[in-house]
Each structure stands twice: as structure tokens, then as C-alpha cells.
Amino acid sequence: MNYEKQEFSSPLAPPQERRAHPRLTLQVQIELRVDGEEVPFRLETSDLSKGGCYIQTMMPLSEGTYLHLTLWINDSPVRVRAKVVTRHPQFGNGIMFLEFQGDGKRLLERYLDALTA
């Protein structure tokens, strides 16, 4: 994994935000299935954005794991191909959305936009 060198204006300055989309603390039902496996996990997100989510789990997945997700937004399934991008042992995973099926991206964006309006 390549790391980008962070520049700080002062020693106490916070690191630069790398996320492309703001995240909301939001619990949404999610079903995830690891590529090549048939058994899904059913959880809730702890935060959600247009570009990804975070899930809390005692047995986090390895970074780089590809997933098929279904988010339940207003009783509508939003199906997404995704990738695990962060792993925090005994706590959870950060997941980046890669590709939405159908109009899933539009549904998610409308849902999140309505919450922040």
C-alpha cells in the first residue's frame, strides 16, 4: 500500500481529510458477502457516505477484500461492489464503494442529500 506524505502547517495541525464525501453517523441495514463465499453477514453501518461506509465487527475482514453489499435505503435494496480499505482489529472495517448496480448510486445520493439538507 502506498502512503502519501502529509504536510502540516504546524506541529499541532490535524491531518488533511482524505475522504471525497462527508460521512454521517448513520445506522443502515447492510448485508455483505465476501467474493467467492455464499454466506452473507448481516450488520448495520456505523457511518455512511456516498463513497463508502464503516461497519463494526469483532472479526474484521482483511484489507483488500472485495465484497458484494446490499444496503437497505428506505426499504429499497442498493447493491454495491466494494472493497475493504481499513481494518481495525476487534473493532471494524472501512469499506469503499466501487460500483453500484442499477440506480443504486442515485438512491443513496438522494437519501444522504435529504438528511443533510
Q: Mean pLDDT, rounded to whole units?
A: 86
The CATH architecture comes to: Beta Barrel
What is the CATH homology-level superfamily? predicted glycosyltransferase like domains
Helix content: 10-25%
Radius of gyration: 15 Å
Number of helices: 1
Structure description:
The chain is mainly beta and 117 residues long. It has one domain (29-116): predicted glycosyltransferase like domains (Thrombin, subunit H). It is built from one helix and six strands, in the order ββββββα. The protein has one helix spanning 104-116; strands at residues 29-34, 41-48, 52-56, 66-73, 76-88, 92-100. Strands 1-2-3-6-5-4 form a six-stranded antiparallel barrel. The longest helix is centred in the last third of the chain and has 13 residues, at 104-116. The model is unreliable at 1-17 (pLDDT under 50).
Give the arrangement of secondary structure elements:
Layout: E1 29-34, E2 41-48, E3 52-56, E4 66-73, E5 76-88, E6 92-100, H1 104-116
Antiparallel strand pairs: 1-2, 1-4, 2-3, 3-6, 4-5, 5-6
Summed up, what is this model?
The chain contains one helix and six strands, in the order E-E-E-E-E-E-H.
Features:
single chain, 117 residues, mainly beta, Thrombin, subunit H, six-stranded antiparallel β-barrel, 1 helix, 6 strands, 11% helix
